[in-house]
Amino acid sequence: MAPAGRTNVKPKALNEQEVIHEAMTVLLEHLEPAKVAMFIAARPIAGADYLQPRERLFAGETVQSLAEKIRQFERSQPPQPSKPPQPGGPP
């Protein structure tokens, strides 16, 4: 028997589609449609093959060629000023 004032209600299992629908409703109520569209476009789609964009972006690349491109990019960036140590932080 449940303590006074409490019921034996079991939590409802969440349905993914219902949650997505509710989230979209909230977004559309609080953001302009263009912002909702930008948000959706920036998020990966559940079940999408995350390897596909990676394979397209790095087609023909090797670890060595990517490492060289990273080094070239880093050399092309202006030097970052060093930050003074924070009190109580690591030296």
Give structural notes.
- The protein contains four helices and no strands.
- It has 91 residues and is an all-alpha fold.
- The chain has a domain at 16-75.
- It is extended and about 65 Å long.
- The mean pLDDT is 77.
Order of helices and strands: HHHH
Overall shape: extended
User: DSSP strand (E) fraction?
Assistant: under 5%
Structural class: mainly alpha
Average pLDDT metric: 77
The biggest beta sheet, please? none
| Terminal CA distance | 59 Å
Number of strands: 0
Low-confidence stretches: none
The percent range for helix content is 40-55%
**Alpha plus pi helix count:** 4
Based on CA atoms alone, the radius of gyration comes out at 25 Å
What is the secondary structure topology, with strand pairs?
Blueprint lengths: L15 H15 L2 H10 L8 H7 L5 H14 L15
Q: Quick summary of this structure?
A:
This protein has 91 residues and is mainly alpha-helical. It has 4 helices and no strands.
Attribute tags:
91 residues; mainly alpha
